[in-house]
Amino acid sequence: MSNRSDLRQIALLTVVLWTVDVALFFVPSAIAGAAPGAAATARIVVIGLGGIVLSGAVYATVCALAHWRPVARYIAVITVAIICGGLVAGSDLMFQEPLRLALSPSASPLSEQMLLIHGLTNWIGLAWIFGLAGLIFLLLQSNRIVRQRDHDLAAAHAAALQAQNAATAARLAALRYQLNPHFLFNTLNAVSSAVVNLRINEAETMLARLAEFLRITLAADPEAMVALEEELETLHAYLAIEGERFRERLGVRFICPPHLLHAQVPSFLLQPLVENSIKHAVARTTRTVTLRLEARQENDDLVIVVEDDGEAGASPAPQGGGVGIRNVCQRLEALYGPRARVEAAALTTGYRVVITMPLQMQRDAAMAA
Protein backbone atom coordinates (compact mmCIF):
# COMPACT_ATOMS: atom_id res chain seq x y z
CA MET A 1 0.00 0.00 0.00
CA SER A 2 1.30 3.46 -0.94
CA ASN A 3 1.91 6.04 1.73
CA ARG A 4 1.44 9.78 1.34
CA SER A 5 5.08 10.34 0.46
CA ASP A 6 4.84 7.82 -2.40
CA LEU A 7 1.63 9.41 -3.68
CA ARG A 8 3.18 12.89 -3.67
CA GLN A 9 6.18 11.53 -5.57
CA ILE A 10 3.92 9.83 -8.14
CA ALA A 11 1.81 12.97 -8.59
CA LEU A 12 4.90 15.16 -9.06
CA LEU A 13 6.44 12.78 -11.62
CA THR A 14 3.16 12.57 -13.53
CA VAL A 15 2.78 16.34 -13.75
CA VAL A 16 6.42 16.75 -14.78
CA LEU A 17 6.15 14.02 -17.46
CA TRP A 18 3.08 15.50 -19.13
CA THR A 19 4.32 19.06 -18.77
CA VAL A 20 7.45 18.06 -20.67
CA ASP A 21 5.30 16.35 -23.34
CA VAL A 22 3.15 19.45 -23.84
CA ALA A 23 6.21 21.70 -23.77
CA LEU A 24 7.83 19.68 -26.54
CA PHE A 25 4.80 20.46 -28.71
CA PHE A 26 5.81 24.13 -28.61
CA VAL A 27 9.38 23.48 -29.77
CA PRO A 28 8.63 23.61 -33.55
CA SER A 29 6.67 26.87 -33.12
CA ALA A 30 9.41 28.35 -30.95
CA ILE A 31 12.09 27.41 -33.51
CA ALA A 32 10.01 28.97 -36.30
CA GLY A 33 9.44 32.08 -34.19
CA ALA A 34 5.66 31.71 -34.28
CA ALA A 35 3.36 32.31 -31.34
CA PRO A 36 1.41 29.33 -29.96
CA GLY A 37 -1.93 29.09 -31.66
CA ALA A 38 -5.28 27.56 -31.02
CA ALA A 39 -3.94 24.03 -31.67
CA ALA A 40 -1.44 24.44 -28.82
CA THR A 41 -4.17 25.56 -26.47
CA ALA A 42 -6.32 22.63 -27.47
CA ARG A 43 -3.43 20.21 -26.92
CA ILE A 44 -2.85 21.58 -23.41
CA VAL A 45 -6.51 21.10 -22.53
CA VAL A 46 -7.10 17.70 -24.09
CA ILE A 47 -3.79 15.84 -23.99
CA GLY A 48 -2.23 17.50 -20.92
CA LEU A 49 -5.21 17.07 -18.64
CA GLY A 50 -6.23 13.72 -20.14
CA GLY A 51 -2.71 12.35 -19.77
CA ILE A 52 -2.46 13.39 -16.12
CA VAL A 53 -5.87 11.91 -15.29
CA LEU A 54 -5.34 8.59 -17.09
CA SER A 55 -1.83 8.23 -15.62
CA GLY A 56 -3.71 7.60 -12.39
CA ALA A 57 -5.29 4.57 -14.06
CA VAL A 58 -1.83 3.28 -15.02
CA TYR A 59 -0.63 3.73 -11.42
CA ALA A 60 -3.75 2.01 -10.06
CA THR A 61 -3.02 -0.93 -12.37
CA VAL A 62 0.56 -1.12 -11.11
CA CYS A 63 -0.66 -1.15 -7.49
CA ALA A 64 -3.41 -3.71 -8.15
CA LEU A 65 -0.99 -6.13 -9.81
CA ALA A 66 1.79 -5.81 -7.22
CA HIS A 67 1.65 -9.55 -6.40
CA TRP A 68 1.71 -10.73 -10.02
CA ARG A 69 4.82 -12.13 -11.62
CA PRO A 70 7.08 -9.48 -13.21
CA VAL A 71 6.42 -10.53 -16.84
CA ALA A 72 2.65 -10.51 -16.31
CA ARG A 73 2.83 -7.08 -14.66
CA TYR A 74 4.84 -5.60 -17.54
CA ILE A 75 2.42 -7.02 -20.13
CA ALA A 76 -0.58 -5.67 -18.17
CA VAL A 77 0.97 -2.21 -17.82
CA ILE A 78 1.84 -2.09 -21.55
CA THR A 79 -1.74 -3.06 -22.40
CA VAL A 80 -3.16 -0.36 -20.14
CA ALA A 81 -0.71 2.19 -21.62
CA ILE A 82 -1.89 1.37 -25.16
CA ILE A 83 -5.54 1.67 -24.07
CA CYS A 84 -4.95 4.98 -22.29
CA GLY A 85 -3.02 6.28 -25.29
CA GLY A 86 -5.94 5.35 -27.55
CA LEU A 87 -8.45 7.04 -25.24
CA VAL A 88 -6.50 10.31 -25.13
CA ALA A 89 -5.82 10.19 -28.87
CA GLY A 90 -9.54 9.58 -29.52
CA SER A 91 -10.48 12.42 -27.21
CA ASP A 92 -8.04 14.60 -29.10
CA LEU A 93 -9.76 13.78 -32.41
CA MET A 94 -13.20 14.46 -30.91
CA PHE A 95 -12.49 17.68 -29.05
CA GLN A 96 -9.26 19.28 -30.28
CA GLU A 97 -10.46 20.05 -33.84
CA PRO A 98 -13.79 21.64 -32.75
CA LEU A 99 -11.96 23.54 -30.00
CA ARG A 100 -9.33 24.73 -32.46
CA LEU A 101 -11.96 25.97 -34.87
CA ALA A 102 -13.90 27.60 -32.05
CA LEU A 103 -10.82 29.47 -30.81
CA SER A 104 -9.76 30.38 -34.35
CA PRO A 105 -12.85 30.79 -36.66
CA SER A 106 -10.73 31.76 -39.63
CA ALA A 107 -8.72 28.52 -39.55
CA SER A 108 -9.30 25.86 -42.20
CA PRO A 109 -10.66 22.47 -41.06
CA LEU A 110 -8.38 19.45 -41.37
CA SER A 111 -9.14 16.72 -43.90
CA GLU A 112 -10.20 13.25 -42.78
CA GLN A 113 -6.83 11.84 -43.90
CA MET A 114 -4.97 14.46 -41.83
CA LEU A 115 -7.20 13.74 -38.85
CA LEU A 116 -6.49 9.99 -39.19
CA ILE A 117 -2.72 10.52 -39.43
CA HIS A 118 -2.90 12.96 -36.53
CA GLY A 119 -4.85 10.44 -34.44
CA LEU A 120 -2.52 7.49 -35.16
CA THR A 121 0.58 9.61 -34.51
CA ASN A 122 -0.88 10.82 -31.23
CA TRP A 123 -1.87 7.27 -30.25
CA ILE A 124 1.67 5.93 -30.75
CA GLY A 125 3.30 8.89 -28.98
CA LEU A 126 0.82 8.91 -26.11
CA ALA A 127 1.01 5.12 -25.63
CA TRP A 128 4.79 5.46 -25.39
CA ILE A 129 4.46 8.20 -22.74
CA PHE A 130 1.92 6.16 -20.75
CA GLY A 131 4.25 3.17 -21.05
CA LEU A 132 7.15 5.28 -19.76
CA ALA A 133 5.01 6.43 -16.86
CA GLY A 134 4.07 2.80 -16.13
CA LEU A 135 7.74 1.76 -16.19
CA ILE A 136 8.60 4.52 -13.73
CA PHE A 137 5.72 3.46 -11.48
CA LEU A 138 6.90 -0.17 -11.61
CA LEU A 139 10.44 0.82 -10.68
CA LEU A 140 9.18 2.93 -7.78
CA GLN A 141 6.98 0.06 -6.63
CA SER A 142 9.88 -2.41 -6.81
CA ASN A 143 12.04 -0.02 -4.82
CA ARG A 144 9.30 0.33 -2.20
CA ILE A 145 8.89 -3.46 -1.99
CA VAL A 146 12.64 -3.90 -1.54
CA ARG A 147 12.68 -1.26 1.21
CA GLN A 148 9.75 -2.93 2.93
CA ARG A 149 11.40 -6.35 2.72
CA ASP A 150 14.64 -4.93 4.09
CA HIS A 151 12.67 -3.37 6.94
CA ASP A 152 10.83 -6.64 7.61
CA LEU A 153 14.08 -8.63 7.49
CA ALA A 154 15.75 -6.19 9.87
CA ALA A 155 12.78 -6.42 12.23
CA ALA A 156 12.78 -10.22 12.02
CA HIS A 157 16.53 -10.31 12.61
CA ALA A 158 16.18 -8.01 15.62
CA ALA A 159 13.36 -10.16 17.00
CA ALA A 160 15.38 -13.35 16.46
CA LEU A 161 18.42 -11.78 18.11
CA GLN A 162 16.32 -10.63 21.04
CA ALA A 163 14.83 -14.10 21.41
CA GLN A 164 18.29 -15.67 21.18
CA ASN A 165 19.64 -13.28 23.82
CA ALA A 166 16.67 -14.02 26.06
CA ALA A 167 17.21 -17.76 25.63
CA THR A 168 20.92 -17.41 26.35
CA ALA A 169 20.21 -15.30 29.43
CA ALA A 170 17.68 -17.86 30.68
CA ARG A 171 20.16 -20.66 30.06
CA LEU A 172 22.92 -18.85 31.95
CA ALA A 173 20.61 -18.09 34.83
CA ALA A 174 19.54 -21.74 35.02
CA LEU A 175 23.15 -22.90 34.99
CA ARG A 176 24.07 -20.32 37.62
CA TYR A 177 21.32 -21.27 40.05
CA GLN A 178 21.89 -24.98 39.50
CA LEU A 179 25.06 -24.65 41.58
CA ASN A 180 23.67 -23.03 44.71
CA PRO A 181 21.59 -26.01 45.95
CA HIS A 182 24.57 -28.33 45.40
CA PHE A 183 26.86 -26.19 47.56
CA LEU A 184 24.11 -25.44 50.08
CA PHE A 185 23.44 -29.13 50.62
CA ASN A 186 27.11 -29.87 51.32
CA THR A 187 27.43 -26.97 53.78
CA LEU A 188 24.23 -27.69 55.67
CA ASN A 189 25.25 -31.34 55.88
CA ALA A 190 28.54 -30.24 57.46
CA VAL A 191 26.67 -27.97 59.91
CA SER A 192 24.35 -30.86 60.80
CA SER A 193 27.35 -33.10 61.41
CA ALA A 194 28.95 -30.46 63.65
CA VAL A 195 25.74 -30.13 65.70
CA VAL A 196 25.35 -33.90 66.06
CA ASN A 197 28.94 -34.11 67.32
CA LEU A 198 28.29 -31.19 69.70
CA ARG A 199 30.70 -28.85 67.93
CA ILE A 200 28.32 -25.97 68.50
CA ASN A 201 30.84 -23.15 68.05
CA GLU A 202 31.99 -24.61 64.76
CA ALA A 203 28.38 -24.94 63.58
CA GLU A 204 27.59 -21.33 64.55
CA THR A 205 30.70 -20.05 62.76
CA MET A 206 29.87 -22.02 59.64
CA LEU A 207 26.27 -20.74 59.65
CA ALA A 208 27.47 -17.14 60.03
CA ARG A 209 29.91 -17.52 57.17
CA LEU A 210 27.28 -19.29 55.09
CA ALA A 211 24.96 -16.34 55.63
CA GLU A 212 27.72 -13.96 54.50
CA PHE A 213 28.44 -16.09 51.45
CA LEU A 214 24.76 -16.22 50.47
CA ARG A 215 24.47 -12.47 50.95
CA ILE A 216 27.30 -11.95 48.48
CA THR A 217 26.23 -14.51 45.89
CA LEU A 218 22.47 -14.01 45.91
CA ALA A 219 22.86 -10.24 45.57
CA ALA A 220 24.90 -10.70 42.39
CA ASP A 221 23.28 -10.64 38.96
CA PRO A 222 23.55 -14.19 37.57
CA GLU A 223 23.85 -12.86 34.02
CA ALA A 224 26.40 -10.15 34.82
CA MET A 225 30.10 -10.00 34.17
CA VAL A 226 32.08 -9.09 37.28
CA ALA A 227 35.64 -8.07 37.98
CA LEU A 228 37.97 -10.96 38.80
CA GLU A 229 38.63 -9.21 42.11
CA GLU A 230 34.94 -9.53 43.00
CA GLU A 231 34.92 -13.18 41.96
CA LEU A 232 37.92 -13.84 44.21
CA GLU A 233 36.14 -12.17 47.12
CA THR A 234 33.26 -14.60 46.59
CA LEU A 235 35.77 -17.47 46.66
CA HIS A 236 37.29 -16.15 49.89
CA ALA A 237 33.82 -16.20 51.47
CA TYR A 238 33.26 -19.75 50.23
CA LEU A 239 36.67 -20.99 51.38
CA ALA A 240 36.13 -19.46 54.81
CA ILE A 241 33.22 -21.88 55.20
CA GLU A 242 35.21 -24.85 53.93
CA GLY A 243 38.12 -23.81 56.13
CA GLU A 244 35.88 -24.32 59.15
CA ARG A 245 35.17 -27.86 57.97
CA PHE A 246 38.66 -28.99 57.07
CA ARG A 247 40.91 -26.59 59.05
CA GLU A 248 44.56 -27.55 58.54
CA ARG A 249 43.68 -30.00 55.76
CA LEU A 250 42.95 -27.12 53.40
CA GLY A 251 45.65 -24.78 52.12
CA VAL A 252 44.93 -21.97 49.68
CA ARG A 253 47.21 -20.01 47.37
CA PHE A 254 46.11 -17.19 45.07
CA ILE A 255 48.33 -15.87 42.27
CA CYS A 256 46.98 -12.90 40.31
CA PRO A 257 48.80 -9.86 38.85
CA PRO A 258 47.22 -6.60 40.09
CA HIS A 259 46.13 -5.44 36.64
CA LEU A 260 44.12 -8.63 36.06
CA LEU A 261 41.98 -7.97 39.11
CA HIS A 262 39.91 -5.74 36.79
CA ALA A 263 39.44 -8.45 34.14
CA GLN A 264 35.83 -9.35 33.45
CA VAL A 265 34.64 -12.91 34.19
CA PRO A 266 31.17 -14.48 34.43
CA SER A 267 29.87 -14.25 37.97
CA PHE A 268 30.11 -17.36 40.14
CA LEU A 269 32.32 -19.10 37.56
CA LEU A 270 35.18 -20.39 39.71
CA GLN A 271 33.37 -21.57 42.85
CA PRO A 272 32.19 -24.89 41.31
CA LEU A 273 35.77 -25.72 40.27
CA VAL A 274 37.06 -24.96 43.74
CA GLU A 275 34.21 -27.01 45.17
CA ASN A 276 35.30 -29.96 43.00
CA SER A 277 38.78 -29.81 44.51
CA ILE A 278 37.30 -29.62 48.00
CA LYS A 279 35.00 -32.58 47.37
CA HIS A 280 37.35 -34.87 45.45
CA ALA A 281 40.75 -33.94 46.88
CA VAL A 282 40.52 -32.35 50.35
CA ALA A 283 37.61 -34.42 51.65
CA ARG A 284 39.22 -37.72 50.61
CA THR A 285 42.51 -37.38 52.47
CA THR A 286 43.77 -36.59 55.94
CA ARG A 287 46.85 -34.67 54.80
CA THR A 288 46.97 -31.00 53.82
CA VAL A 289 45.87 -30.35 50.24
CA THR A 290 46.84 -27.02 48.75
CA LEU A 291 44.42 -25.38 46.36
CA ARG A 292 46.15 -23.05 43.91
CA LEU A 293 44.28 -20.51 41.84
CA GLU A 294 46.30 -18.57 39.26
CA ALA A 295 45.25 -15.92 36.74
CA ARG A 296 47.52 -14.82 33.90
CA GLN A 297 47.36 -13.15 30.54
CA GLU A 298 48.32 -14.91 27.33
CA ASN A 299 48.11 -12.58 24.32
CA ASP A 300 44.46 -11.47 24.18
CA ASP A 301 43.20 -14.21 26.47
CA LEU A 302 42.66 -14.52 30.19
CA VAL A 303 43.86 -17.87 31.54
CA ILE A 304 42.66 -19.08 34.95
CA VAL A 305 44.10 -22.21 36.52
CA VAL A 306 42.41 -24.07 39.39
CA GLU A 307 44.73 -26.80 40.67
CA ASP A 308 45.04 -29.02 43.71
CA ASP A 309 47.75 -31.45 44.85
CA GLY A 310 45.40 -34.15 46.06
CA GLU A 311 45.44 -37.74 44.93
CA ALA A 312 45.98 -38.35 41.19
CA GLY A 313 42.75 -38.39 39.19
CA ALA A 314 40.67 -37.51 42.23
CA SER A 315 38.51 -34.94 40.41
CA PRO A 316 36.11 -35.77 37.56
CA ALA A 317 36.82 -34.81 33.98
CA PRO A 318 34.09 -32.88 32.12
CA GLN A 319 32.97 -35.94 30.21
CA GLY A 320 32.86 -37.89 33.46
CA GLY A 321 29.74 -36.11 34.62
CA GLY A 322 31.17 -33.61 37.13
CA VAL A 323 28.40 -31.05 37.62
CA GLY A 324 30.80 -28.17 38.36
CA ILE A 325 33.12 -28.58 35.36
CA ARG A 326 30.29 -29.40 32.98
CA ASN A 327 28.42 -26.33 34.17
CA VAL A 328 31.44 -24.09 33.61
CA CYS A 329 31.89 -25.50 30.10
CA GLN A 330 28.26 -24.81 29.22
CA ARG A 331 28.34 -21.25 30.56
CA LEU A 332 31.52 -20.37 28.69
CA GLU A 333 30.19 -21.93 25.49
CA ALA A 334 26.99 -19.86 25.77
CA LEU A 335 28.95 -16.66 26.36
CA TYR A 336 31.98 -16.99 24.08
CA GLY A 337 31.41 -19.95 21.77
CA PRO A 338 34.69 -21.34 20.38
CA ARG A 339 36.67 -18.39 21.81
CA ALA A 340 36.61 -20.07 25.24
CA ARG A 341 37.75 -23.53 26.27
CA VAL A 342 38.14 -25.63 29.40
CA GLU A 343 40.93 -28.18 29.77
CA ALA A 344 40.83 -30.61 32.69
CA ALA A 345 43.47 -33.23 33.40
CA ALA A 346 44.77 -35.39 36.22
CA LEU A 347 48.32 -34.64 37.41
CA THR A 348 50.89 -36.89 39.05
CA THR A 349 49.52 -35.54 42.32
CA GLY A 350 46.25 -33.72 42.04
CA TYR A 351 44.05 -32.28 39.35
CA ARG A 352 44.13 -29.16 37.17
CA VAL A 353 41.47 -27.23 35.31
CA VAL A 354 42.55 -24.49 32.90
CA ILE A 355 40.03 -21.94 31.65
CA THR A 356 40.85 -19.79 28.63
CA MET A 357 38.53 -16.94 27.63
CA PRO A 358 38.81 -13.58 25.84
CA LEU A 359 40.42 -10.95 28.05
CA GLN A 360 38.17 -7.96 28.60
CA MET A 361 39.08 -5.36 31.18
CA GLN A 362 36.44 -3.62 33.27
CA ARG A 363 37.12 -0.20 31.71
CA ASP A 364 36.79 -1.68 28.19
CA ALA A 365 33.42 -3.18 29.08
CA ALA A 366 32.24 0.17 30.46
CA MET A 367 33.29 1.96 27.26
CA ALA A 368 31.54 -0.65 25.12
CA ALA A 369 28.36 -0.24 27.17
Task: Describe the protein in words.
The protein folds into two domains: 4-158, no CATH class; 199-368, Heat Shock Protein 90 (2-Layer Sandwich), CATH 3.30.565. It is rod-shaped, with a radius of gyration of 42 Å. A hairpin with a 4-residue loop joins strand 6 (341-346) and strand 7 (351-358). The relative contact order is 0.07. The longest helix is centred in the middle third of the chain and has 85 residues, at 112-196. Strands 2-4-5-7-6 form a five-stranded mixed beta sheet, with helices on one face. The protein has helices spanning 4-25, 27-32, 38-64, 70-103, 112-196, 200-219, 228-246, 271-282, 323-336, 362-368; strands at residues 225-227, 250-255, 264-266, 289-298, 301-308, 341-346, 351-358. The protein is α+β, with helices and mostly antiparallel strands and 369 residues long.
